[in-house]
Specification:
This protein is α/β, with parallel strands linked by helices. The protein has helices at about 15-25, 65-70, 85-100, 100-130, 150-160, 175-180, 200-215, 260, 325-335, 385-400, and strands at about 10, 30-35, 50, 80, 140-145, 170, 190-195, 195-200, 220, 225-230, 235-240, 245, 250, 270-280, 290-295, 300-305, 305-315, 350-355, 365, 375-380. Helix content is about 30%, strand content about 25%. It is globular and about 65 Å long. It binds flavin-adenine dinucleotide.
């Protein structure tokens, strides 16, 4: 069966696919989006919902390897790798190690900052023009510490980012308690980053997909892409469980699953599924007012409407989507180190998802070097909700062969060696 022929086929209905569909349709392109499950059923669903426009220290940074090794020795620490002989994981770790140098970190920060600043403009514009109803707040985020060592590391990071023009404010004592009255007295200090927003991510993505539909985008859910038909340097058909789709252009935006789709196309994308957890519960009277980062535990606490979401953990365990009850218990225990009243008796929705993590903390946004009509938009790691809108705009500019608003060279596919 050959379905209708749009100009662009997007594979993946998370934040990146939905934003790409929206901006392409806005630019007058006819678009079909193919999603194997429901819209926003992947990593975009239950995450922390933060839009980090300028707190952009990459995950790969000096000292991270030593810290990760220490964490590896502790069960249920924020970071975990399941030891295994997986060549893709080993290759990823090799690239990650290289990206942890001071020079690489310093060259990555301005790229993330450019993406973040463009994202802020687009988030503000989208929330002003579309009825997104996703509780978007531009309230900043407070990083809190209960140990001197981590507070000092936080101050060092803030100083580093101030060098790039990022605004930060150090809080302690009465000022900290006034800013966030429900913190335990054991919290010794805080650093406030004003350039942060938050939203309810699944509502955001569904609303954007709805806006894209109004612009004429056809969304086909329960349609898994299973392969491609290739002729020379062109993808001539996208094979799905419901038949073939043809289009002039194909965009792969399947999050952590993108490397599995790209492999038969001859592309090796070092994107690891970095599993993370969230617990969403009813707000109590003692709920934090601001989005918080509980630093020693690497826990995010985001107020979302009448609920509070706690997020944590980065596990490289492959595509294992089981919810580990001990991980859930570790999130509660971590939150209790900072917050007076975390109510474990009220039911919380546990969730896990796979961040699509590149080793250098930058997304892959660019044309395939091996194909004339394939674009990759994946690998947004811990920042996909933040960078969704700018990615949608960049994909639209790439497909129109326009000068992109942001230099795409650091984001190109071929920064990672590709098979010949
Ligand atoms: C615990 C946690 C907290 C996070 N917190 C934040 C945060 O605060 N701020 C932030 O900016 N980011 C955050 N992130 C990261 C963010 O969630 C991701 O970067 C983002 O969701 C990636 O979006 P995506 O569209 O690339 O992938 P996804 O949302 O995973 O979407 C990919 C889609 O492709 C579909 N798909 C896969 N294979 C196929 C196929 N063969 N055919 C058709 N469809 C297919 C999947 O079903 C899925 O719906 C967090 C992530 C986690 C796990």
């Amino acid at each position: 069966m050959t379905a209708r022929q749009p100009e662009v086929l997007i594979v993946g209905g998370g934040v990146i696919g939905a934003c790409s569909a929206y901006f392409l349709a806005k630019a007058g392109r006819s678009v079909t989006l193919l999603e194997k499950g429901e819209i926003c059923s992947g990593s975009s669903h239950g995450n922390a919902g933060l839009t980090a426009y300028s707190h952009v220290t990459p995950l790969a940074a000096p000292g991270v390897l030593a810290q990760s090794l220490r964490w590896l020795l502790r069960p249920y620490s924020p970071f975990h790798i399941k030891p295994r002989l997986d060549p893709e994981l080993l290759r990823w770790l090799w690239h990650f190690r290289a990206a942890c140098s001071e020079n690489r970190m310093r060259s990555t920060i301005p790229v993330l900052l450019a993406l973040g600043q463009a994202s802020r403009r687009l988030h503000v514009q989208l929330h002003a023009t579309e009825n997104l109803h996703c509780d978007y707040q531009y309230s900043g985020r407070l990083y809190v510490f209960n140990s001197r060592t981590h507070f000092e590391a936080g101050l060092h990071e803030a100083e580093l980012l101030r060098g790039y023009g990022v605004e930060t404010r150090v809080l302690a004592g009465a000022e900290l308690q006034r800013t966030e009255p429900h913190l335990l007295p054991s919290v010794i200090g805080g650093i406030y980053y004003p350039d942060y927003g938050s939203l309810i991510p699944d509502r955001f993505v569904h609303a954007l997909a709805q806006a894209a539909r109004r612009l004429g985008v056809a969304i086909e859910s329960s349609t898994e892409v299973r392969g491609f038909e290739i002729s020379g340097r062109r993808i001539t058909a996208v094979r799905t469980e419901r038949g073939d789709h043809r289009a002039e252009e194909v965009v792969l935006a399947a999050g952590a699953f993108t490397p599995l789709l790209a492999r038969p196309l001859g592309l090796r994308l070092p994107i690891q599924p970095a599993k993370g957890y969230s617990l969403t519960m009813k707000k109590t009277a003692a709920c934090p007012q601001l989005p918080l980062s509980l630093e020693e535990r690497k826990l995010a606490a985001t107020p979302m409407g009448d609920r509070l979401r706690l997020c944590s953990a980065l596990e490289l365990v492959g595509y294992d989507s089981a919810i580990n009850p001990r991980r859930v218990a570790a999130i509660y225990a971590g939150a209790r180190d900072y917050l007076a009243k975390i109510d474990e008796s009220s039911p919380a929705e546990p969730w896990c998802g796979f961040r699509p993590l590149t080793p250098d903390s930058l997304p892959i946004i660019g044309r395939s070097p091996q194909h004339d009509n394939l674009t990759i938009a994946a690998g947004h790691g811990t920042l996909g909700i933040t960078q969704g809108p700018v990615t949608g705009q960049l994909v639209t500019q790439l497909l129109a062969a326009e000068q992109p608003d942001i230099d795409l060279h650091p984001l190109r596919v071929s920064r990672f060696p590709q098979p010949r």
